[in-house]
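Notes from the 1:1 (GR / supervisor)

We went over the backlog. Supervisor wanted to see one worked example end to end before approving the batch request, so GR pasted a single chain during the call. The sequence is below; no edits were made to it. Supervisor asked that the structure be written out right there so they could see what the output format looks like.
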Amino acid sequence: MIWTGTIALLVEHMWHGEIVPWFPFLTAMSDPADTATMLVEMGQIGIPMLLAILAMWGIMVYVENKISYKSAVTNAN
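Structure output shown during the call:
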């Protein structure tokens, strides 16, 4: 699931021209003024999105472990 999302995000960024397959890869890096804007956007949008995804993943793992443990205890009796 994470790899599919990663590939989808890569394709979306390429589609909108935000990344390119040649150096410096990020189109905002070609102009120093755009670099500052890019870093602010990554900090304000990208980091919270990453933290939200990691939190949801952690919750899903926790719930799955609880369900598996409860099932194992029930089946053992």
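Supervisor's comment: The chain has two domains: 1-28, 31-77.
Batch request approved.
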